[in-house]
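Encode chain A's predicted structure.
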Amino acid sequence: MFRIARKFWHDQRGIAMILVAIMVPVLVGFAILTIDFGRASGLHNDLQKGVDALALAAAAELDGRSDSIDRANRAATTLLTNKTLFSTSGNHTLAPGDVTITYLSGIPASDDIALTAAGIDANGANWVAPDSQSAIFAEVTVNPSGLAAGAGTFETIFPVSLIGGSNTMEIRPQAVAGFVQSICETVPIFMCNPFETTDPLTSKTIQQAFASGDTYSREFRILKSDNNTWNPGNFGLLDNNLDSIRDAIAMGTAGTCYRRDAITTKTGVTLGQVNAGLNTRFAIYSNSLSKYDKDFRYRPSVNVRKGSKSTGAACNKYSPVDDNTALPLPTGKRYGVDRPGMSDPIGSQLDWSAYWQANHKVPYPNIPSKTNPTGLTNQPASRYDVYRWEIDHPSLITDQSLNPTKEVGTPLCYKGAQAPTDSPDRRLMNMAVVDCIANTGKINGHSQIKPSGYASVFVSTPIQKEDNSKDDEDTSAKEKPISLEIVDVDGGFANNTLVDKAFRNEAQLYR
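Encoded structure for chain A:
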């Protein structure tokens, strides 16, 4: 009996069947798990691509305007046709209820700090933007199945419930994209916002002032601060990637792109470089720039009429006439009365009579107003309107002024083989505008500040010297202010010439 039992105990025949019977469920289970994880990975990829696209589309509209969130929601909604092939409902099309879109004013510095769909991070900080102007990030999160139609949920093939789990899995990817806007075609200069005051009730942004017509046809005179006190009527310099501020202003580029929301001030640069660089646009080349009078990068405008004496120094120095036989564009009246650095607007068509009679020897033709942001065309033309009218009627550029000056608008001092072109207009510059009263400490500290906007400005006359016997770059001669008109600004109420041509919009994923 014991012998039979021992023989049975040591008999190994048929053991493979037992092992197979035990291993088949295990192997099948692993195979099913592999399929489930593959399905989960496919669903995750589908959803991640979808929320990435939604976040980028929404972030591209976050340009700081009052309607940016509304536009962002519309942009994201148009993309809600991405399909998830592995969700419970199968071939499910993303719907607004499947995702939560939250707009943020910032994000945690470290990606290791998680963000909830409500914009609150793991440390309890709330990053939700209070309004459209401060929204710079779009966060898109797939909702849990209880709040959606099942975009991120699917049933597993493996019976997880047998081991105490759930037979469904949820995939909830998240994407955060941000809006970056930069400007590359600009000079490294900022001007103080002439409409800023110490009273929030009376202070205006440059965009508000432009939209209401407060900037139209006014002469703005800006001068660099000498005592580190920054107020309307001053201008300053920005950090750049060029060795010479003079050349940067002459060529119209800072050698770098500035972010719309962050610029860095620059100190220690002599004002004479600004003077010399700007005047090349009038075909005036200071002694140090005379070697560039054939260089197309330093070309002048096609219209440089400026009321200059026809003397031997006319090509390297601005010497206004004193006998009214040629006149520059008219200066403003009541300069600095209403606002520092700003004149009254041109009051009537009669303000143009002397200019037109001296330079063209005929009555003024009542040139229409084309650049008034309010849309009114019955107001007197601005300086820029008249300047453009002369360009659009080429005979007015070559027309000689009264004897004995006989000035023309043709840039005779430019000797380049390639003639100046009208596009881009060389007497227009893009310039940052800063609320200097609010940022005085930061300006002096050579730190990053957020500009209140950007303006396209028209340089109406060359910069003069207090002592005109000295060279443009001689700082002891003391410059007079830069005279300009504001032609356009960035923002929703602008003429859109600056935004369309100069700004570069980019949306990028951050997490």
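The mean pLDDT is 80.
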